[in-house]
């Protein structure tokens, strides 16, 4: 098991950083306070000790080990099991990278489990250790701070997606046919993002009820409602992204057909031009053909200036037709 | 901090216009009444004094400073924090320009904060100062009047959008391919407008409950319900705009394909015409070719009128084919 | 103010038709009964007297003057303000023409206000005056009868729309490209019709609750429920029209593309035909070219029947190719 | 009035088949039991006697006479008015044929009214007469049995529609362009079918509440719930049909465009081929042209084997080009 | 009747494996415990004995015999009838194969009925027999275990579908036109899968209520909630598959049109090329034509180097045009 951090807090202040979990459990039993253990992808066996000590429920432990959970909040007696999906936006690939963060909270402990490289837990711990007044409220305060961090981290995801949608709109009207794929792939990312955020409002309501019932500090309750407000904002914007990308997909089809019309029109122009030139060139060829005939009695053939006249006729006829077609707008 | 206006009202009448906030707070403490402070994009530090004096909640103050909030209504003990998104329609660019207006109301104060150039607060203050009977009802009356103004100002937005949709319909059937982009962009504006108005009904319900609970004057309650009715009307029309633009987008695709069919048909006509002319011109060329052959025994070559006959044959054959194709409708 | 009709009813029977409103108010005060005043587009000033006498609420009066309301039902103490949108189907233009009817009802009066040329109020009054047993129930009976009339008048609208959808289906498959516009415009009319009817069920529920609470005659309650049933029927059919027209729009796109395919196939046929003819004509031209060469030693040129043989060769080659292409199905 | 059947049942057994309604009413008054009268499209006058005797409500009677009702269930005191839309699938035309069945039930009577040729009432009566144990439960048992029959008869409709959708899928991929119309028309039938079945669950809930309230036999209650389960199954499948046909419509458009691409590709091939042949034929024509020139000093013209060499050159050049184009894959 | 397994369990341990059902019923009566009978497609007659002994409800028995049920949960007094649709994903055909599993549970029995080759019942029995502590809880534990198995088995279905959607995305952009059919067929499978899983949450809620009411062990209740969580996860992903495939279908249409544009552009290029070559070849032909004229006075014809000059002119003109067209990018 990778223990990322392991600390005991008394009255909002870190009083010990034990080397192993046994020490943590002992200290907690002796001096009271709150333990906050940070783990990274624990195995079933590794979770067993923690589960036993804190009375974590078997089913929640199973989820924590197997990972791939959707965001949820489950209450087992006095313990709470929370799953969150932190997100990060990678602009190079235009993908949303999801983390997975599990949090067990009980009367005197917090166990945070990361199933991805990032997740923001360290940042939250650092922030809280600088605010003992907040950390003093115990596990609920830690849970709130984690939720707050995860939800705040959705803001750059939303901004990144919005930025790409703006880019897509410009690309759409510039006629770049690669935009089709980009719209589709961005829509897929938005769908996945929606799956990560849509369970949150119901979770928040459940959590708020718990906070109310267990008489958690009113300020913490309000802070939680503030997080909920941010969640609503994120959801509202993600929903509008879906609509925009749907429209963009439809429009892309129409613009594609439009370009086809333009190509068709260009082709028509070309055919007109070619036909005109063919007609222009036909005239002198025809004159040549006529005077290539072998009749005995073709007076022109015997005129002194027959040849230059014929050449003149050739050019004249070609010129005449050129002028006619030019006037008709075919050339 | 840009203080836009700063006044104390007693019994619905402006009794003082202090030069700074400290004076306002003193007057309020001494003579009672209601303060109405109008701010423009205050910084965190600037908001601190106001927040302290009126007991504004830290989280609401944070929102008020950072802006970019969706419309919402939050109650903190006896204070209310309201976010509104006033809108204006710019017909030249066919965009909806959104303001952002934050309102703190408490037992004896109103703080209005603008985060955009316009918002209509000054107009509301002027209107209310002309109606002391209304202003006498205190902060609730101000909040109602702001809501009323913001919602009334949605009417020209709706009218502008409707007008553009009408224009789009005409443009659609006139075959202007630029309409695709216009439909898409207008749909985007409508989506944004919907995000600004959809939270309002729930906010109104919350506010009405508060008005009922705090025994606010029945007439003010009814006026609020009147605003709610206007909100419903705006929402119903904005929703129908979405549907209309969706249909327009689909139809645009079909009409584009239709134009393609027409181009195809025109091209077919052209090909027919060109082929016909090629055939017509072939006839005289062929005659010239035949009489250009060098056989010893070609009687026609020695006829006295062989040449004019050949030319006649050329014209005759061409004319015959011209008539045939004309009759077939190919020319 | 255009007073369309102005009557006092006692026990379901018209007892007076006063010349002006003052008289009406006096009679009502003296003899009791119910007044029913029918107005047409009153101005603000004109409404003032009526509002004052009957205690109409300022906000409702404002709506009644400014018009352009969506269907709604508002209760102010003992008065009710109802907005209805009667509809008529104009088959020539395939549009739904909407009226706007406002109804104020109180303990002893009904004020009906028309904001469009038609609306059916006169028909309802006539019908009720023939049924004193119904009219005796007072303002509630009038309100019911108006609702009943408006909803019954939706039936021909629904029938007209259905008829046009049937026509559209036939037109679709006959390949008439004008159908695109027709589908779009009919869909727009259906969307507007839906906006007129969708608020009705909620209004009916509100009204029914009022009828129950105020102990209105059970038969009138049942009649109201009958109207509600008709409303449901209208809504269900209008909804299905939306779906049908949506499908028609999609199908229209596909059929358009299909016709394009057919045009494409026809063009391919044509190109084949033209190419075949070009090849057929090439043969004799080539023969002519060969025998136009000036070699000293070209035995055929000196044959006695060289020329007819050459001509024969020309026709033979052309015929052979014609047969070949015919067999290949290219001609 | 067409009286289809007219019987009195005592204790679940048919005790009389009176010749007219008066007799029925008398018997019922004298001996008790339950009357079951089956009518076919009665006129207003014809319904009057039945309505009077059994106290049917005027509004329900109006509906029963005018027909064209959507499925519904209305309670008037102790009487119930039920409208059902039986359905039959006609595979030849791929249409759903709807019947309309009205049922009045009261304490001691059932009146069934058919507004279409079929409806299944006779089958239900026969089935019930064979089960006196069921029929003994009175009007509720008859109503249940009719519902059960109507809902069971939806099964072959669902099966027929599913079968046609399967056929459509095959047809889609075989490239038959007639499938567009078929999809559209089947979707229309499904939409109508949905209108016939969607009101049923709410009706069942209402009926179940009545059964519970009036203490109807628990077994009949369970049977009713079984019918409700079948209704849910029918609705779930009809909904999936809508989705499938919607997808089929979209796909049809894409496949049509795909065929267009194939036609385009074929046309490109053809143009290549024709151009190649034109180039091949150009070569010998050009040779002929060159040796048709009249220069005094053209040595080849005086060679003994000039002519055969020229012809050889013609064939050689043509062959060379043929080989080149063949290698390039243009032929 | 195919009896697949037939056992009596006392205190969570298999105490007997009777040869026929009569024995089972006797043992149960004598020694208590729980019977678990596993059947495969029983006929009506075969079910009669079981139904009689355990008091199974006639309607549930009818469903169990006729099969083709949607997932549901019905309570009859102390018995429960559950229908589940296990699923398996066949990757070769990209279809979801559905089983159908019926479960009757009562105070002291479980009857499992399979209507398809697979279903997982044997695996569940084996797993439970290894855990007497769980099996001791009786029929509820068996029902839970079956639900758990069926829902766990949905995971590979979801994974298989997701994998195919990934493949489809790659195929889409590789321009394989066979993808249209694949998208459509996969969407159909997803629709069927949704029909199998969407009734589950409501069933779970019903079952949980029962567990609560009948005081079933809290751990079993929690395990059930864990299954519900997995169901939610499956539903959320299946829903996102629908959206993805819908987008894929739309995109496929656009990409198809895009390929058409590319074909169009290629064709334009080709026409340009061919026209250029025709013009290039025209030049020498025209020279040949001119010098094939028979004028008496054509000085060039008598020049000594007239012929080579003419040939030079032919090549020169052709070369000039070649260079011109090359520079214009037409070649
Ligand atoms: Mg789990
Ligand atoms: Mg997941
Ligand atoms: Mg990017
Ligand atoms: Mg935050
Ligand atoms: Mg970007
Ligand atoms: Mg991805
Ligand atoms: Mg905030
Ligand atoms: Mg926002
Ligand atoms: Mg207003
Ligand atoms: Mg405009
Ligand atoms: Mg404009
Ligand atoms: Mg914008
Ligand atoms: Mg109003
Ligand atoms: Mg309106
Ligand atoms: Mg019409
Ligand atoms: Mg009516
Ligand atoms: Mg018509
Ligand atoms: Mg209109
Ligand atoms: Mg009716
Ligand atoms: Mg109907
Ligand atoms: Mg068929
Ligand atoms: Mg049945
Ligand atoms: Mg069939
Ligand atoms: Mg039909
Ligand atoms: Mg196309
Ligand atoms: Mg059943
Ligand atoms: Mg089924
Ligand atoms: Mg498949
Ligand atoms: Mg499981
Ligand atoms: Mg696969
Ligand atoms: Mg299938």
TrEMBL record, chains A, B, C, D, E:
Its main location: membrane. Keywords: Cell membrane, Ion transport, Magnesium, Membrane, Transmembrane, Transmembrane helix, Transport. It is a multi-pass membrane protein. Gene3D superfamilies: CorA soluble domain-like, Magnesium transport protein CorA, transmembrane region. InterPro entries: CorA_cytoplasmic_dom, CorA_TM1_TM2, Mg/Co-transport_prot_CorA, MgTranspt_CorA/ZnTranspt_ZntB. It is found in: Cell membrane; Membrane. One of its GO terms (cellular component) is plasma membrane. GO terms for molecular function: cobalt ion binding; cobalt ion transmembrane transporter activity; magnesium ion binding; magnesium ion transmembrane transporter activity. It holds the Pfam family CorA. The chain crosses the membrane at residues 274-293, 305-325. The keyword Cell division does not apply. It catalyses: Mg(2+)(in) = Mg(2+)(out). It comes from the Bacteria. Belongs to the CorA metal ion transporter (MIT) (TC 1.A.35) family. Mediates influx of magnesium ions. Alternates between open and closed states. Activated by low cytoplasmic Mg(2+) levels. Inactive when cytoplasmic Mg(2+) levels are high. This is Magnesium transport protein CorA. It comes from Paenarthrobacter aurescens (strain TC1). The lineage of its organism: Bacteria, Bacillati, Actinomycetota, Actinomycetes, Micrococcales. The gene is corA.
